Amino acid sequence: MSELKRKQINKNLVEPYDLFIALLSILSIINIVLYVAFSDKAVLYVIGIIDLLLSIFFFIDFLRKWIRAKSKPQYFAREYGWADLLASFPMPQFKIFRIFRIIKAYRTFQDTGLRNVARELIKNQASSALFTIIFLIILLLEFASIAILYVEMKNPQANIDTASDAIWWVYVTITTVGYGDKYPITLGGRVVGVLVMSTGVGLFGVLTGFLANKFVPKGKQIEKYEKQIKEMNESLDEIKQLLSKNKK
Predict the structure, then answer these.
(1) Is the pLDDT reported for residue 113 higher than 80?
(2) What range does the domain containing 51 cover?
(3) b vs e for 164-203, b when ≥16 Cβ sit within 10 Å of the residue's Cβ?
(4) 107 and 160: one domain?
(5) pTM recorded for the entire structure
């Protein structure tokens, strides 16, 4: 591989974060299709809430690229930074600009090469796992909410009949809080509940475990250093005592 080619690959190197944003962009395009496929207002409201969450991620990504850009005018004009900014707006007329994100991500993956992308993801396993879990939680939050609404709203006695009810129920279920104020009463709803509990609890558990491990080693490392410093101080005290005895 030539030196020029190697530099180009390093420049366009795909990080786990880039793949995460690309997956969110694909999800946002799928949501546009879902807007057409569904007519129920509650389901559309769920999609709208998730889309607002995606817009926040896209705006943060735009700010990140803007701050890291060596030439801000070049990023904004030639590298479609203006499209990144417009794509972060939650208004329907701007969502089509998210296609630019997918095209840019595809070109970056193509320039980097599948083997280099896989190598980078394996190299950064912690980041890859973190972003994968966050993306799966977003997927579960959206589609489980749509599913529970679809099966529960048909029953007049259901207490999960609005978008906020559905999202609230899914979230408290996957976080293992389970207030019990909202719960499925139909067979289909309970099937959805089993799936949410089986997958969501595991995902959220892995996420909290990952975050805990990021802090626990630091605490142990500090304890180790404190122990070493204590031992060094004790050794210094012994040396001082020996020196004082020798002087006498």
Answers:
(1) no
(2) 1-123
(3) ebbbbbbbebbeeeeeeebbbebeebeebbeebeebbeeb
(4) no
(5) 0.74
